[in-house]
Amino acid sequence: MNQKEKFILLTRNEFKDWLSNTSFRRIIKIIQNHHTWKPSYAQFDGKNYFAQLEGMERSHNERGLGGIAQNITTFIDGLIAICRSFEEMPAGIKNANGGAICIEHLGNFDENGDIMTDEHRETIIFVNALLCLKFNIIPNTDLIVYHHWYDLNTGKRTDGTGSTKSCPGTNFFGGNTVEAARNNFIPLIQNLYNLTKNKSFVDAKNDNPQQKGKILVNDLRIRTGPGLTHNVVAKLKIGTIIDICEERDGWYKIGENQWVFAKYVQLIEK
Question: For 4, 59, 72, 77, which has the most beta carbons within 10 A of its beta carbon?
Fold first, then answer.
């Protein structure tokens, strides 16, 4: 895990831990998939994650989007960035952002554009599947959507008829049509969704829990280490049940690089 101001950079496992350990007030029922088109793979040098995110935020601010538009960004090497707060509606599809979470996949996935890497492909499927599990979204083309399917001005869904925007790309998992998504993209998400659901994703917050606990206050901060000087990565709602795998200096470890102040946690008998 690495963080620069609001942007949090995570591996797939870290994202899974972060998502499973975090509670959200906003109701999320639609997952938007986009590609950045620009920046493309050519602008990513293997380490300039935050520079790319900051550049996108500057561009989105200039367009009046009130900060970076997307809640999540995925990268060529499979890493994942938390960008816009999940509690804030994205600015992904004009007039169609209510109840949505927006994912931007860095790259140009139009025909003759970037060839998606295996790591990136795996992460895109992974993020969609875990969001479905977290927010009780059934993987289908009504709830997992592409920007191409919407009228750019009205936000009305047209399934690509007359759309001038190809996002997330004419070669994104075989195409950007509803049929291509239904045949090529949704089944991959559904398969991982089924596999992960059987492993009780939402309840499995770490691999070696020693104790369970109940959060006693609202918005209890999760920090990257056992102390107030460590960065805050998320907050937990009162009543949330957590797994505890370590205690250190009055702090409980609840996941990889995730710690909460023990004073505000009530231990639960096994």
Answer: 72
Residue 227, both tokens: 């102390």
> Nearest-5° angle of CA 177, CA 170, CA 123?
90
How much of the chain exceeds pLDDT 70, in percent? 94
Residue 165 sits in a domain whose CATH number is: 3.40.80.10
Our count of domains for the chain comes to: 2
| CA 67 to the chain's CA centroid | 17
Residue 26: pLDDT over 90: yes
Token digits of residue 146: 């592409």
- For 215, the domain range is 211-268
Tell me if 205 is assigned to some domain. Answer: no
Q: Strand 241-244 to strand 80-82: parallel, antiparallel, or no bridges (unpaired)? A: unpaired
Residue for token digits 């620069």?
4
Residue that is last in its domain, among 197, 228, 247:
197
Averaged pLDDT, 162-179: 94
Phi, psi (5° rounding) for residue 35? -115, 155
Burial class (CB in 10 A: 0-12, 13-18, 19+), 167: buried
> Any bridge partners for residue 33, and if so which?
103, 146
- Check if the beta carbon of residue 99 is closer than 8 Å to that of residue 30: yes
Interval 78-89: pLDDT, tens: 999 999 999 999
The mean pLDDT value of the chain amounts to: 91
- Within-domain flag for 106: yes
C-alpha distances out from residue 162 to 103, 143, 152, 179, Å: 23, 21, 10, 16
